[in-house]
Amino acid sequence: MFELLSSSFQDFKKSYKKYLSFEFIYMLLASLIFIPLISFIFNRMLKMMGTGALLNAEVYKIGLSLTGMIGMLLISFLAVVILFVEFGVIIIIAQKRYFNKSIFVSEGIVTTIKKLPKLLGFGIFPLILILFLILPFIDSSNLPALLDFNWPIILTSKIYGSYFISLLYLVVFLLFTYLLIRSIFTFHYIFSEDMSIREAIKCSWKITKQNKLKILFNLFLLNLIIFVAGFLLITVISYLVTVVDTRIIGNVVESYLITFSSYMTIIFSLLSIPINIIIITRLFYRFKSSQGELVEDQLVLHSNKKLNSFESYVTKFFTKKKHTFVSVVIIFLTGLFLINYTVNENIVYLKWDVSVASHRGDLKNAPENSMSSVRSAIDKGVDAVEIDVQMTQDGVIVLNHDMDLRRTADVSSQIKDMTYEEVSKIDIGRLHSEEYVGEKIPKLDQVLEVVKQEDVTLIIDVKSVDSNSEFAESVVELIEKYEMEDAVYIQAFENDILQEIRNINNSIKIGQILFLSAGNLSNLDVDFYTIRQSMLTERFINNAKRQNREVWVWTVNIERNMKEVLKYDIDGIITDYPERAQNVLGLDFTTTQAEGS
Question: What is the DSSP string of 322-335?
């Protein structure tokens, strides 16, 4: 084992410059060509489907339309090409180093491109599957994010939610790991043995049959060493910051070291794939030898003289000017350090301005969407109270979430089929607790009257069913009656009713509720998004802020997830546990203050 690690380290030591050079070039190509191209195809596909964006359940239309399926197949093909080229070049460099041969990076690129025709055919489909198996284990920044997912929050929510779901996720993870281990040498057979995709998968499956645990153990140990090395580096940097006592020098050094650690993180991420492929390459030839197969260099390189000459010239130039190059890099990094230090010194630190909204009032301590629930939330000092509203058969706006009243009152009737007189007789407190027996369903104007006296924002979630225009007019009329246009946010899953409200009174803030989206949302006429916490990503936040739109996150109940969402520049949290969210905000802010003093 240690002999394998030692040999792999020697391979890396001799070739790390080539890996770094290629990864930097490839990262540049990804940002300039690959990501824009795939994003263009995806957005073009959505336009051909008749819309620039798909909201919530509409996203599933991609898989139900011919245009969507063709578009996703094309995108999958391009994604395979991108990773095929990246893995191919790294494998070729590692393979030649195994046989003590040095090559130009350009030779690896040209040779890989020459093998691209192998992707044309039915063999591409199992390769797409292998791509999806690999993605969770690698930094896939060379591929664009077509949908927004926050995997830490998704996994945390599922793990806390159900033991069965946790077990199911574990089984799926183990299955993915097993399939990945069995197909791990597919690319090596394609590039080193010049096999077709189908033959390569069969051979990988065969060679790994008796070696699954060895592969898993070696890769686990390697990545554990990488993780520990990175952790120790960050720990040492943190320690160096604390031993510098003087204020001015200490801040400057701290800025230097923090920025340095950021660059080291980038370099670690760039080299993680090459390091793993080096050891996988050595395992590949070790297993071939143990099975009595002839181990020889069968890889034929292809090259371009002009590219080789250019690479040779660049290499010689930087070799001769090594000291000058190092000096320029140091000066450049020093300049960035000083800029970073100056900017940090001039930042005005403000209180963490994230609003806490209580979901359906204070539903954990009073019947949801009741006057008691609203008052309880206000008494707890929340910034906003979120409620759900529907319209009765005779046009009265009342509070209720579900289409019927089974869950809250054990009544099967739907609000839209009942008159207000019928609704007003229903007891929604009986099923909650004895304390609230006799609690009735309130009208929206009752809530507006109470909230108007408080310094609280009211978030109204409109649950439209049939007549959007009449519903919208009634809601806006009540808001205008109490002159609360500036104190009310209106949100909905259906964008049509939001536009009805916009047309009636454009001073009321409207927001789109999202649990899934695809495409360009900039054409939506909204003031804010209310997104499921599983959608929260830096990309989504940046796009929203560019459009001057607020981002509220629902429904964040687990403390760990609260801390996770607060890493992002959000405007508000909607939660069933407002006091828990307030405590997390207070504790985190106190910690931040203490660290900054």
Answer: HHHHHHHHHHHHHH
Pair of tokens at residue 27: 């990262």
Structural contact between residues 447 and 454, judged by C-beta atoms closer than 8 angstroms = no
In percent, the amount of the chain with pLDDT more than 90 equals 45
Count other C-beta atoms under 10 Å from residue 457's C-beta. Answer: 20
100: left (phi over 0), alpha (psi -120 to 50) or beta: left
Q: For residue 593, name the pLDDT band (cuts at 50, 70, 90).
A: very low
pLDDT in tens, 444-462: 999 999 999 998 999 999 9
Taking each helix axis from N to C end, the angle separating 163-182 and 124-134, rounded to the nearest 10 degrees, works out to: 130
For domain 355-596, give the fold: TIM Barrel (3.20.20)
93: Cβ contacts below 8 Å, ≥ 6 apart:
15, 18, 19, 22, 103, 105, 108, 274
Q: Where are the beta strands (DSSP E) in 498-579?
A: 509-514, 517-519, 528-532, 550-554, 572-575
Query: b/e string for 142-177 if b means 16 or more Cβ within 10 A?
Result: bbbebebebeebbebbeeeeeeeeeeeeeeeeeebe
Q: How is the chain split into domains, by residue range? A: 2-303, 355-596
Token pair 């393979």 is at which residue? Answer: 95
At 73-116, the pLDDT tens digits run 898 888 888 888 999 999 999 999 999 998 999 999 999 999 98
